[in-house]
Amino acid sequence: MKIGSLKWLFGKNSEFWPTNMKTGMWAWVGHRLTGLALVAYVFLHLSFLSTASVGSGDFDSLMEVTSQPLFVAMDFLLVIVVIYHAMNGARVIMFDLGFGIRHQKLVFWICMAVAAVLIVGGLWAIWDLVFVPAGGA
Amino acid sequence: MTEERIATTKVAGTWAWFFQRLSAVLLVILLGIHLYVAHFMDVGSHTGDEALITFEDVSIRLDQLIYIAVDYSMLAMVLLHGLNGFRTVLFDFDMFAKRKKVVDRGLWVLGIGTLLWGIVILFPFLSGG
Question: Which of residues 86-125 of B touch A (CB under 8 A)?
Answer without folding.
Answer: 86, 89, 94-95, 114, 117-118, 120-121, 123-125
